[in-house]
Each structure stands twice: as C-alpha cells, then as structure tokens.
C-alpha cells in the first residue's frame, strides 16, 4: 500500500475540535472524530478517549496493524501540564480485505487515553494533533487537531467498556528463538496450551518494521514467526525483554511482555 503512505505525508487540512464543535466537512468514510471529556481518576490522572465514528464498512487501525495498515500517530506538544500519556488499546478485530489480514476496528473506535499531570495539583489541558488512516475500498488519510473538553465528574460508561476490552496481561514469558537473517532478525515464539487466530509481535521502536507473523499449531503448541528489520538492513541487537506478543481471539486477547530466548 505504498500509495497510502504517500498520501499520509502529503499536505492534509486539519480538522479542528474546540469545545466539542465538529467541522462542517469531513473526508469520505468519517462520521465524527473527537476527544471525549472523560473524568479524573482517584490518583489525579485524567482519563479521556479518542472517539472515531465511521461509515458502515469502513475501518481504522490498531497500534500494530500488520504489513499494510498504518497505526495512529499522536503529537501532544500543544498540551498543558502534561507529564506523560498511556494509551489503552482495546482488543482489535482481525480484518480480511483483498487477500490481506490487518488488525483494526470497524464502524467505531473508542480509544482510552490516560494523561499524567506534570503538577498533580493542577488540571491537565489535553490537545493533540492526530494522524490516522481509514479504509474501505480506498484508504483516506486524516489529520485532526483535537482538544479535550473539561472533565466530567463521573466515569464515562463508553470509555469504561473500552477499557474492559484491553488485552489481559499475562505473567508468562513464552519461549522464543532469535535468528539472524540477511536483512535483520527472525523471531520464532512458542505458546504452550494456547490457541488464537492471530498473533501480533511488536518492538517498542518505531524504526523497526515487523512482518505479519506466520502461525502454525501442533498439538498444544502455537508457533508464531515474524521478521524484524531496522533501517540498517542488517542484523541488529534485540533485547527479548522488550518484545510484546499478543494473542488475539474473537472474544479475548492476552498480552505477553518479553520472551525467554532459547538456543539450539
């Protein structure tokens, strides 16, 4: 989908949100996009959410969508009193289209976002420039500039429901083998007593491309294999503790932080 990547770096008029006011014109496939006001957590953190409503049949992407998808990008530089942001990704769907499998969301995405204030006794002012893609038969790049309205006093049931859909974090560390290939690394992970129609393999490094894992099931062992390639086009050091592996099923998902390297 090289043409899609080209469109994303082209000049795109930003949609603006100011106190919840939506622009009069939206690109094809997009019904609405906004930051929901959310509420303040007992520890002083602010919980908001990105809400994206799409036309029927349209989709948007998860943080690690696969070979052809484009994950959302967030720029929080316009915010005030913001120390850090944690995004709580709900379990994605496995979407098949044109012979490709991607991970994303149909129709509507509510993406919970937890903001940590720099000064705990002061409110966080959240403002973001967000780039994301939406697709049906064609793919449309979208850039929006959004500001979160003042927080509500009570939790938002829609955001709470999205939080309940985040993958369960497992304390297990699957075994894995890391092999050098001509242009990078190949990681093979084994999950005992697990089955899943899809596995995501990630590294917290935007400069490393990860292929869509190849899956095989032999008895009680699920094997996932993916290539990791960085900008050098050569093998590179990889810390197995920084790998994130997610088993994704139709009704649940399980996330594993790190794996146990094994040697032949």
From TrEMBL:
<feature type="domain" description="Thiol:disulfide interchange protein DsbD N-terminal">
    <location>
        <begin position="42"/>
        <end position="147"/>
    </location>
</feature>
<dbReference type="Pfam" id="PF11412">
    <property type="entry name" value="DsbD_N"/>
</dbReference>
<feature type="signal peptide">
    <location>
        <begin position="1"/>
        <end position="16"/>
    </location>
</feature>
<dbReference type="InterPro" id="IPR028250">
    <property type="entry name" value="DsbDN"/>
</dbReference>
<protein>
    <submittedName>
        <fullName>Protein-disulfide reductase DsbD family protein</fullName>
    </submittedName>
</protein>
<keyword id="KW-0732">Signal</keyword>
């Amino acid at each position: 989908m090289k043409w899609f990547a080209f469109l994303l770096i082209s000049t795109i008029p930003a949609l603006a949100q100011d106190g919840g006011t939506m622009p009069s014109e939206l690109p094809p496939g997009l019904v609405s996009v906004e930051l929901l006001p959310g509420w303040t957590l007992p520890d002083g953190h602010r919980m908001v959410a990105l809400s994206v409503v799409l036309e029927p049949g349209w989709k948007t992407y998860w943080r690690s969508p696969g070979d052809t998808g484009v994950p959302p990008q967030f720029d929080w530089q316009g915010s005030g009193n913001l120390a850090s942001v944690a995004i709580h990704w709900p379990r994605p769907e496995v979407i098949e289209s044109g012979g490709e499998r991607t991970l994303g969301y149909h129709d509507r995405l509510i993406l919970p976002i937890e903001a940590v204030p720099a000064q705990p006794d002061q409110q966080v002012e959240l403002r973001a420039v967000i780039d994301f893609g939406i697709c049906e038969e064609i793919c449309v790049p979208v850039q929006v500039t959004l500001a979160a309205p003042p927080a509500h006093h009570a939790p938002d049931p829609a955001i709470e429901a999205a939080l309940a859909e985040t993958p369960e974090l497992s304390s297990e560390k699957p075994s894995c083998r890391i092999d050098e290939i001509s242009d990078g690394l190949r990681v093979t992970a084994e999950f005992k007593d697990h089955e899943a129609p899809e596995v995501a393999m990630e590294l917290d490094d935007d400069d490393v491309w990860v292929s869509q894992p190849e899956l095989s099931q032999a008895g009680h062992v699920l094997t996932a294999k993916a290539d990791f390639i960085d900008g050098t086009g050569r093998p590179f050091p990889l810390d197995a503790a920084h790998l994130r592996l997610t088993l994704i099923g139709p009704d649940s998902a399980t996330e594993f932080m790190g794996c146990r390297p094994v040697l032949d």
